[in-house]
């Protein structure tokens, strides 16, 4: 059994805590990483672990948490440190007891809109990160259509080709890329996005306040975050209404939502294969029918 000593020394040095080895609770973990809670009471930290060569993934996650925290809008766990111990990379962050019974989705909608008010002149980010375990390119760009075409849709289509998904997906996908400017003609601002905002990446603290975590941050069209909240459910009508009250969406969102979620569906195809191929093709067909 591991005593976490090497990791604890790094966490204690970075955070000023004095967590003793021995107080550890391995928890189920998320989709990608092993997770453990170290320490007791207010000293507790939430730690995710993976192979040492994935350190950069955790560094990008810590940078994303810090970027969102700096907006002082929606709560995120405070990142404490990242590092390597032996053959393991880790990220340590503030532990927040999640699963509050009376979660406040209205606050979540308002606060997400507030976070999206943090804008930049260019789309992208100062560093790449990952979406699930897939690399996500964030090279900064003045033009949203080109950014989406190259670094989102194009990147995933190319990965799909390398994974053996050639033929129809590629031909129709390429046609969609050519027509993107007529679908994305609403001149969005470059807002700070969580980037991977499915229902598994929001929770509610004991006081009901929303907490978002496990980000894949970049600056982009806020509708891309909103679209993902609708992809697998879990956010609800009150959340959406509160968001729109704080910052209404422009017309045409329903079509753009499909386009933004297509990115995640092709990513799922690349990660998991199977039924995501027909889902991706179906979405592309619907989008091609919208081209003017
Ligand atoms: P993964 O990167 O493996 O997908 P997540 O970051 O989604 O892992 O975390 C896995 C689970 O751990 C989450 O679903 C959530 O319930 C819980 N969790 C995440 N961050 C914290 C935190 N800072 N404090 C307490 N629990 C957390």
Number of helices in the DSSP assignment: 10
* Mean pLDDT over all positions: 95
* Level-2 CATH architecture of the largest domain: Alpha-Beta Complex
What is the tally of beta strands?
12
Number of domains: 2
Reading side by side through the largest sheet, how are the strands ordered?
A: 1-2-3-5-4
CATH 4th-level superfamily of the largest domain: Aminoglycoside phosphotransferase (APH), C-terminal lobe
Find the CATH topology of the largest domain: Aminoglycoside 3'-phosphotransferase, Chain: A, domain 2
Give every kind of bound small molecule, once each.
adenosine-5'-diphosphate
Q: Which segments are poorly predicted (pLDDT under 50) over 5 or more consecutive residues?
A: none
Described by strand count, sense and barrel closure, the largest sheet is: 5 strands, antiparallel
Radius of gyration in whole Å, from Cα? Answer: 20 Å
């Amino acid at each position: 059994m591991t005593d976490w000593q090497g990791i604890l020394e790094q966490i204690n040095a970075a955070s000023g805590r004095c967590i003793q080895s021995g107080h550890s609770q391995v928890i189920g973990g998320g989709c990608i990483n092993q997770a453990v809670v170290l320490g007791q009471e207010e000293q507790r930290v939430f730690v995710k672990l993976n192979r040492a060569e994935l350190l950069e993934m955790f560094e990008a996650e810590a940078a994303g948490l810090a970027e969102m925290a700096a907006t002082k809008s929606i709560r995120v766990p405070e990142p404490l440190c990242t590092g390597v111990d032996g053959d393991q990379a880790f990220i340590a962050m503030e532990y927040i007891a999640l699963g509050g019974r009376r979660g406040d989705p209205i606050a979540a909608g308002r606060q997400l809109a507030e976070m999206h008010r943090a804008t930049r002149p260019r789309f992208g980010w100062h560093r790449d990160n990952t979406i699930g375990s897939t690399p996500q390119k964030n090279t900064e760009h003045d033009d949203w259509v080109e950014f989406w075409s190259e670094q989102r849709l194009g990147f995933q289509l190319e990965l799909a080709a390398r994974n053996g998904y050639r033929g129809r997906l590629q031909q129709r996908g390429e046609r969609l890329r050519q027509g993107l400017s007529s679908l994305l003609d609403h001149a969005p601002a470059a807002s700070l996005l969580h980037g991977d905002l499915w229902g598994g990446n929001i929770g509610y603290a004991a006081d009901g306040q929303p907490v978002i975590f496990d980000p894949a941050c970049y600056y982009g069209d806020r509708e891309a975050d909103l679209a993902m909240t609708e992809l697998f459910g879990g956010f609800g009508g009150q959340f959406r209404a509160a968001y729109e009250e704080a910052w209404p969406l422009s017309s045409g969102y329903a079509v753009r939502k499909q386009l933004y979620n297509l990115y995640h569906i092709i990513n799922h195809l690349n990660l998991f294969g199977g039924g995501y191929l027909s889902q991706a093709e179906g979405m592309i067909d619907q989008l091609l029918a919208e081209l003017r």
